[in-house]
Known about the structure:
By secondary structure, chain A is an all-alpha fold. Chain A has a domain at about 20-215. In chain A, about 75% of the residues lie in helices and about 5% in strands. Chain A is built from eleven helices and two strands, in the order ααααββααααααα. Chain A has helices at about 1-30, 40-55, 60-90, 95-115, 140-160, 165-175, 175-180, 185-210, 220-235, 240-260, 265-280; strands at about 130-135, 135-140. Chain A has a two-stranded antiparallel sheet. Chain A is globular and about 60 Å long. The relative contact order of chain A is 0.20. Chain B has one domain (about 10-250): 3-Layer(aba) Sandwich (Rossmann fold), CATH 3.40.50. Chain B is built from ten helices and ten strands. Chain B is globular and about 55 Å long. A six-stranded mixed beta sheet of chain B has the order 6-7-8-3-9-10, sandwiched between helices. In chain B, strands 2-1-4-5 form a four-stranded antiparallel beta sheet, with helices on one face. Chain B has helices spanning about 45-55, 75-80, 100-110, 115-120, 125-135, 150-165, 180-200, 210-215, 235-240, 240-250, and strands at about 10-15, 20-30, 35-40, 60-65, 70, 85, 170-175, 200-205, 220-225, 225-230. By secondary structure, chain B is α/β, with parallel strands linked by helices. The interface of A and B includes residues 178 and 183 of A.
Amino acid sequence: MSQFLQVLLSGLSTGSIYALAAIGFTLVWQAAQTVNFAQGEFVMLPAFFVLIGIHWLHMPLWLALIFGLIVAVIVLGLLFKKLIVEPMLPNGGLPLIIATMALSILLKEGTKQFYGAEAQPYPSLFPQTTLHMDGAVVSVQDLLNLVVSLTIVVALTLFLNRTRTGRCMQATAQNPAVAEILGVNTKRMVLYTFLINAALAALASFLISPVYLAKFSNGETLGLVAFIAAIVGGFNQIRGALAGGLLIGVLDNLTATYVTTEYRAALPLVLLIVIILWRPQGLLGTSEGRKV
Amino acid sequence: MSAGTPVLSVRDMSKSFGAIHAVQGVSFDVMPGEILGLIGPNGSGKSTLFNCILGQLTPNSGRVEVNGQSVSGRRACDLNRLGVGRTFQQLSVFPQMSVLDNIILAGQEHRGTMLGRLFGAPDAGLTADADQMIRFFRLDHLRDTMAGALSYGQQKLVDAAMAFMAGPSLVLLDEPAGGVNLTMLANLKERLVAYNREHGTSFVVIEHNMEFVMSLCTRIIVLAEGRIIAEGAPDEIRSNQTVIDAYLGG
């Protein structure tokens, strides 16, 4: 039982970080009706911004984190929207999806050339200690990763549902033409969405990099798992992306502990196939109608 | 703005899509408190004209003034702040928000600063005004229902209530009667007339339901193939042979 609790908490911790990246897929889908296949690299890259802050600019960790967050929001939010999404979107969703695939390769290979192919040590944000709870040994880092991730998701949900700007962002996602007629500056709302996506990816990066270390190829796994988490939970619902991320994190850890570690990488794909066959809109998603 | 200044002034508006001339040299004025009907066969350029006026399409030529101020090239969200509202042919509510939230959202962009939008009251202090609008359109029993769960006619009423929430001086109504049952239609027309009388708001109404448009409007403009072919009081339009030919293809 104590081992189960340890595995469960560890799974929830990793899953909550997957959820942050998965929510990014959901936000970009709602704002631009496209899939950002560079999302994994968006999670990989901010850790390197922090390392640049620490090693090159000699910043303390807290300042390097703020620096990394700001650079990520500018590069992965503002510049991504202005230089890639805006020029490509008028040509349709598919060219933009292909462009994000190209961006993914560019960011990955660029990081490898710039910073090296080896995994870089990354400072831990939380104490590397353990707590003993009812016979279970719980990692403080896991616990705090979970708390911080869930706090971010709750804050985002409150922002979207309880503020005027959040409601305007929802209105823009649901019906942009009407929102514009009602006085909503829809271009600004879409920009906010991309900035929030970049911030979420950066926060996920800061939380996961102490575990995975900072490596140019981290985005391959993270992007795939977050994409599957978003589909499993429901691509058009933030709570769906959260549920999908947590589910994959927990199942992944339970499988590795109680079944086999050999097939743990296949588990998200099996889950994806089952969900698409059984409930294509995802566990908590809603069906979307399209006009042709 | 003087009393004689039109609420809306459109001059020499033209819009082409490739070889198709959707709107050709259209000019007209809408005076304060006037209800102007814009009719014409399908494809005559009515909705394109609305989209050009509101900046949702860029016209090839022409200019638009609202209350004497040039708004050519301005975005729809800017025009909304200048007092221009619009309803759409297709349903235009936000389906995953309640009726109350839809109506609050329609009025909130006129109030407050950016900080207020982020940290101020989520209803922007508009709940009382929204409730009043809900009562005016007799939607009290649906106040907290998700807009996506309403019938088509009820959503049309919510759509109209949203267009009026910002206190506009001009509202462009695009086929408000389309697909609405007779009971709901009578309710909608009666509410539009009442709003016009109480607030002096001008309307431009695109409509195919002739009975509805002839009884609602004080003046009618008829478009065919992107041009104005007739203009006048409803009775004059009814008996105009050019109009009859355009509709019947004679």
